[in-house]
Write a structure and sequence with these properties.
Largest sheet: 8 strands, antiparallel, barrel
Number of strands: 10
Number of helices: 7
Helix content: 10-25%
CATH class: Mainly Beta
CATH topology: Hypothetical Protein Pfu-838710-001
Order of helices and strands: HEEHEEHEEEHEEEHHH
Distance between the termini: 13 Å
Structural class: alpha+beta
Length: 263
Amino acid sequence: MDHNLYTRIVEQIETLPAHGLCDLEKATLMNRVDTKFILSARLLPTILAELGGCYSALEIGGERCFRYESTYFDTEDYRLYHMHHNGHLNRHKVRMRRYVDSDIQFLEVKFKNNKKRTIKRRIELDEPAVNLGEHVDFLKSLKVPSPGELQPCLHNRYRRIALASEERGERLTIDIGLSNAIPGFDQSEKALTEIAIVELKQSTLNRDTPFYRLARSMGVRPSGFSKYCMGMTLALRHRENWKYNRFKPVLRRLAHQQKIGRG
């Protein structure tokens, strides 16, 4: 991302009121409805200015834009990826997420049920995990398929701005500078430097909220986006027999927003 743009984004976040990790009750949302948006990062200063009185920003140690690193796990034949690609509900994603600035990591399981609700469960880890063998019982308790066969498949990193409205019980996360790499695949590093991934998290779907209204006015429509599935697809879509037809509309939207960002 252009340094000047990043500076403008950070400066705009500083104008928002702050909240801490212990300040949220209604907006924790471990069981929720997610709505995602793909947009040019160049829109963020304007968006943050427009949302000024509607959300507060998470602040930890004086920081409001946090570094995240994740490792996603799947079977050798990418069973979890294909369940998502084939449109299965009642599906799982498994990842180890590290909050770089606080050096805390969790093993997390995200479950999308047949009512399109996202339920997240996690356990804190003493150190980053590469082998999940000692956590198989946790994975089995959540009915993750083939828990003993999971292995690292994708690493990604990005920066996150975490906004919330305790009054409305919703959160808004903004991820920028997303890059992906596949272990053992030297040519897999793919960066979406011009893109922001915005995720609106609510207890029940409500399209009459400040960000939803603003996005609509700017012509930004909701779009499915999985960091795991898109990271794999961006790296491997030219590999023979790699299935990604379901994700082609998202690839086109990414390409369009990247072009706007470079504009």
